[in-house]
Amino acid sequence: MTKKKTFALRLDAAVLAAVERWAADEFRSTNGQLEWIIYKALKDVKRYKKELDSTEET
Q1: Residue 2: its pLDDT value, please?
Q2: What is each CA distance from 26 to 15, 22, 55, in whole angstroms?
């Protein structure tokens, strides 16, 4: 399992509300949605390459 690191994140209230609505629409937690957004952005600009483990699902 991937080790996760905790940190504080400050967001504008309107931005957080928009992320919360988006997460609810996709049946994700707010944290899960933020992780997905960051992962997708990094992948799109080729800053993150991850070999998928055979036990991991996308």
Answers
A1: 77
A2: 17, 6, 23
Residue 3 has pLDDT above 80, yes or no: yes
Residue 18 neighbours by CB distance under 10 Å: 12
* Residue whose token pair is 């504008």: 12
- How many whole angstroms separate alpha carbon 34 and alpha carbon 37? 5
In a domain, 49, yes or no: no
Instruction: Provide the domain count of the chain.
Output: 1
d(CA 31, CA 11): 13
Distance of alpha carbon 1 from alpha carbon 55, whole angstroms: 9
Average pLDDT over residues 10-28: 98
Per the structure, the complete domain to which residue 18 belongs is given by 13-44
pLDDT exceeds cutoff 80 at 57: no
